[in-house]
Amino acid sequence: MIRLLVAFAVVMVGSATVFAKPIHKQALALHMGPYLLAKVNDCRLCHVPGDTGPNDDKPHNAFGERLEEARKELKKAGKPFDITVRFEMIADEDADGDGVPNLLEILTGHSPADAKDKPNAAELTAAAKTLGKYRRFLASYPWRPFEPVKRPAVPMASGAWAENPIDAFIAVGHREHELVPRPEADKRTLLRRVSFDLIGLPPTPEELQVFLTDKSPDAYAKVVDRLLASPRYGERWGRHWMDVWRYSDWAGWTDGKDIRDSQPHVWRWRDWIVESANADKGYDRMAREMLAGDEIAPEDPKTLRATGYLVRNFKSSREKWMTDVVDHTFLAFQGLTLGCARCHDHLYDPIKQTEYYQVRAVFDPHKVRIDAVPGEADTKKDGLARAFDADPKVVTYLYERGDERNPDKAHPLSAGIPQSLGLKFPDVKAVGKSTGRRTAFANWLTDAKNPLTARVAVNHIWLRHFGQALVPSVFDFGKNGRRPMQPDLLDWLASEFVERGWSMKPIHKLIVTSRTYRMSSTPDARNASLDRDNIYYWRMPPRRLEAETVRDHVLYVAGKLDVTMGGPDIDHALGLTVFRRSMYFRHAHEKQMEYLKLFDAANTSECYQRKESIIPQQALALANSELSTAMAKLLSQRIAKDVGSDQPKFVTAAFEQLLGRPPTATEAIECAAFLSQPDRRAGLILVLFNHHEFVTVR
Ligand SMILES: [Ca+2]
Questions:
Q1: Average pLDDT value for the chain
Q2: How far is the CA of 330 from the centre of ligand 1 (A)?
């Protein structure tokens, strides 16, 4: 929905005053990257308000007219005449005759078509430096997401900062933008960060002591290995992938509202995700099993669980169901808004409407059903929700303007994929009663030469380690998305991922052991003045814990988290009294634990990236909920076992447990005063639950 709104907003802003071809506006924005300032990234850069001219274009201003002339000149000379070529061709000209070249006007945020609007002397001085950076930006590693990944060379490291290839790529940005990377985080902060990151839980005080006293050079690497080997890892990262793959439990029937996403017993797919992550099954294998597990291993119930990915999209409306399967498969695995091509050829990316329906033909034959499981004949009570090809003879037609009432019956379509992605659709071979189309599609998707699959996957992994992605538009790697500022790093990671057999654990290890990851998150005014948004990673961005992690954290510190794994979804109304990990509770539209919703739990319809809101109800949940009160009491009793009646020791232990650090001198004094009243220990714990550091990873 947000995606659609953004697309509409682009058009609406344009049409209210001036209209430029969106494709040109987007191409220019991609070409110039951060050097196209927001105030000139506007249709008015090239157009004036007025009646629509030929090609639905509004009339051009002086700069736009020169761009048009350049088109004719280049065309006549038989040369390429893309908007970016024309733009660079007239960069040093002065369209409005105010004495400042076009490019310098644009780089300083002024109009190249308005002589009354030009940079002052100070701006021009600064622009000389910007111009150099812009030229180097244009000459740097290109972002070509539709071409196969070519492994970029790791930059030569200068200085001792870079320790692994990730750092070498990041160090280039530091040098170019004169940023000084923050020093390494202290051991406490680092251990807390990496524990939450890899297993979704903080270190225990014992684990902290072991790490603080381990002076061996591989102390940190040992911690990383321990965390990656923990079964909690599969739950933590499984939950991340459940966001991307839109996990939803069966919500049942809501009277009259027709809530039919998913199917009963789909939790077996959730368990398959967790097990696969823990076993470090290749991402390619995971994708193939989710899309075509019933064709790859028709007799293996363990593999059939994976097709819960398809089951999840089930809706009573066949049209909506098929649309969701096609659109979200491309958003999740290819970072492409293929859905735009349902009604017409894609506006921005090279995808034809016919190709959209060829992808649909891959999925048209399938339906979902529930198989009986051993020991339970009644599939209402238990069963295996799975996909299968029910109708191998189904014929797929293009719908005129996306309207299912107008199928183009003259042209039946075979299964296929967008040609612009450069690979052939593999031969389709039937498997038993199944068409084999989904297997062919999955093989295409996970071909090492598929330009997008590995790039999109490592971008999702990076996002969850750093809280910001390399390609900020995680579901749109196309022309309407936003380009990465480290395309070489992204490509190197994608190539490394495939070379390591699509295995995720080595990529996690590479990332979390990098110096980039180990940096402190502390602010720095000078760096911030040069790179306010930390685009070039001069520090680790601090982050709020995700919803599940907040709740798990509260239970864990009180010693009450029940780490039983898997099984049927637990009633979401029991979240405050059943102490299993949060990911095992019912998660469906209209059936989500309130506590988790408050902390921005995944939207079941679409959640390629979580949002981070701050609302007063979060504080109330942490301070007043039944869960917090009960856990505060338990934790206070737990600490008392170790420290007896010693109040300063109690305060220190509480801080260590909840915030991962001892209290400051001021905090110690304030807490001592607070505890001078009787029976306030649990109250102090509650206060610390509410401390912003309790829900923050630094
Ligand atoms: Ca001007």
A1: 93
A2: 43
The mean per-residue pLDDT over the stretch 512-533 comes to: 97
- Is 432 buried (19+), middle (13-18) or exposed (0-12) by CB count in 10 A? exposed
Q: Ligand 1 mean position to 33 CA, how many Å?
A: 21
Average pLDDT over residues 524-546: 96
Rounded Cα distance between 186 and 203, Å, is 15
Distance (Å) from CA 123 to ligand 1 centroid: 13
pTM: 0.93
Instruction: Write out 154-169 in H/E/C secondary structure.
Output: CCCCCCCCCCCHHHHH
For residue 257, the surrounding DSSP H or E stretch is none
39 C-alpha to ligand 1 centroid (Å): 14
Q: How far apart are the CA of 95 and the centre of ligand 1, in A?
A: 8
Q: What is the pLDDT of residues 259-277, one digit of tens each?
A: 678 999 999 999 999 999 9
Tokens of 115: 């002589």
Distance 238 CA to ligand 1 centre (A): 54
Mean pLDDT is lowest, of 118-127, 152-161, 201-210, 520-529, for 152-161
The Å distance, Cα 107 to ligand 1 centre, comes to: 12
Compute, in angstroms, the gap from residue 90 CA to the centroid of ligand 1: 14
Q: Pairing relation of β-strands 366-371 and 696-697?
A: unpaired
Residue 593: pLDDT over 80 = yes
Query: How many whole angstroms from 190 Cα to the centroid of ligand 1?
Result: 50
Give, for 366, the enclosing helix (H) or strand (E).
Answer: strand 366-371
pLDDT at 255 over 80: no
Distance 127 CA to ligand 1 centre (A): 14
What distance in angstroms lies between residue 109's CA and the mean position of ligand 1's atoms? 10
Q: What is the 3-state secondary structure (H, E, C) of 192-243?
A: HHHHHHHHCCCCCHHHHHHHHHCCCCCHHHHHHHHHHHCHHHHHHHHHHHHH
